[in-house]
Write a structure and sequence with these properties.
The complex is a heterodimer. By secondary structure, chain A is mainly α. Helix content of chain A is 79%, strand content 0%. In chain A, 37% of the residues are buried. The mean pLDDT of chain A is 85. By secondary structure, chain B is mainly alpha-helical. The N terminus of chain B is likely disordered. Chain B is elongated and about 80 Å long. Chain B starts with a helix and ends in a 6-residue tail after the last helix. The chains are: A mainly alpha, B mainly alpha. Chains A and B meet through helix 1, helix 6, helix 7, helix 8 and helix 10 of A and helix 7, helix 8, helix 11, helix 12 and helix 13 of B.
Amino acid sequence: MWSYVAQRLILVVLVAFLVSILIFVCLNFLPGSPVDAILGPNAPAEQRQELIKAMNLDAPPVQRYLEWIGGIFRGDMGKSIHSREEVSTLIKQRFPATLELGLLSLILSLSISLPIGIYSGIRRGSVGDVLGTAFAMAAVSMPVFWTGILLILFFSLKLGWFPASGYVPFVEDPLQNLKLMVLPAIAISTTSTAMVMRQTRSGILEVLSQDYVRTAWAKGLRERTVVIRHAFRNAMIPVMTVLGFQVAMIFAGAVLVETIFAIPGMGRLLVDAIYSRDFVVVQSVALFVGILVLLVNTAVDVSYAFIDPRIRLR
Amino acid sequence: MNERAYLASNSTAIALAELPAPERRWRAMIRRYGRRRLGWIGAAIVALAVVLAVFAPLIATHDPVEADFGNVHAQPSREHWLGTDQLGRDTFSRVVYGSRVSLRVGCIAIVIAVGIGLPLGLIAGYNTGWIDHLLIMRVMDAMMAFPPLVLALVIVVALGPSINNALIAIGITYSPGFARLVRGTVLSVREEPYVDAARALGASTPRIIIQHILPNLMSPVIVLASLALAGAILAEAGLSFLGVGAQPPTPAWGSMLNTGRQFIETNMWESIAPGTAIMLVVMGFNFIGDSLRDALDPRLRT
């Protein structure tokens, strides 16, 4: 078991390293110079020289990469080209909003998808199953930003139940914060709810046809015991895989939803940095997100290796 | 039952049995697909979108980029079926032309994704050495560590925002999925007795790959491609929504939605129309993908 965990951790370090190279290569070696992108192609030579110096672009790429990574190990993620603020400070300011949004949508998604998914699996073909499946099929095809716009249209503009956009930190005004977060969290969670629901349904369906479940029925156990004690646990393994994947989905959703609902989170930080061609911020924020997703996925892998011995022995 | 009646009742089975094996497989597959209602609905939606894209100049009632400042934010009417936008451009015509952007970007991006992913997956699956393990698949892992939209954003910002760069970025973003799928399939097919037999007969590696391995890759790759197409169209809409995909005045559903949402209180049709269009086309490809998966590869059925 521990050798499996150690193996996974070594792999994380290796892949995290590759993630950083990937970002660096994308931003530095793809056609299109950052200087052109920031100043435009017709900027005076003097201004260009200044920027090249400021961004240290005349140094060899390997040296620049090592300086970037070395800085990150010392907790220095570089400074924004425009605001001159430390990227680490920016991330510290912006991360809480996105974390809250992510957790809220994860809770929302699980509390809807698991019960309905299990119900659909047990009562296959029932009205509830058909409705749930129809919802799931529509929801997977809904662009997050479209869901967000529809929610604003109906729940804030027509019904006036929630404010349309804005952000207040939870510590300042918890009630107002939740009011503002409900619609964005629903928007982000829709796709993930649909995916987890489908996976739970098919997991339950598959497990229910297994021999040990038939044995459990034959022993005369109550339906609730069969489903919860025997079927649910094993049906959860594929669901966990989908769940690990949701973290990436939620962040992608945050990029769009934070734009619509004007929430100053990580997604908004990345998009603003992209609009202003702030390569330093883009580079470090992308690395932060990549490593975060990597860590969560590894944690999921390791945790279900604890639950299911077949996985670590494979 | 006499022989003739037996033959008649089994005519399809016998007709199929007389066909060469691959053709029989395809026929059976088409039959299985035809039995799925959602497959038909998906095909109908996509066919409609293709018709809109191909015959856009005939179907559109107005020039999609011609402004009419005397008639901005018009409500739906007989003249403007879905109203007009902030520049007085006809929303219906823009939605019709928008199908061109979505379908083109979606299709080309997936061709790029398969073009990168398939060969890499083949190499990684066929030679299990350190090149496979450490290099190709770990780089793919690194690419998959990003939420697809974030990786596409990073690539687009490096290349410069434009619709062509967006489709390249989306193609690159979706390639690891294909590489993984192909590698997994190759790993299992490589161990099949008929591949060993071919090798024992002295078949060259390219011959084994083309004759024996590629045909096995067709169905999983087609299934993934149709599902990824839905994802690619969503990604293009997302990038255009953020303003780094299609540039004005090109009518693209994502960018129409972004401008439309600012005037949602004045005229909601400006956002409802493109939003519904994206949803329907994505749903169409999802339905096709799901039905293809069930028809081509019953083992993957969920």
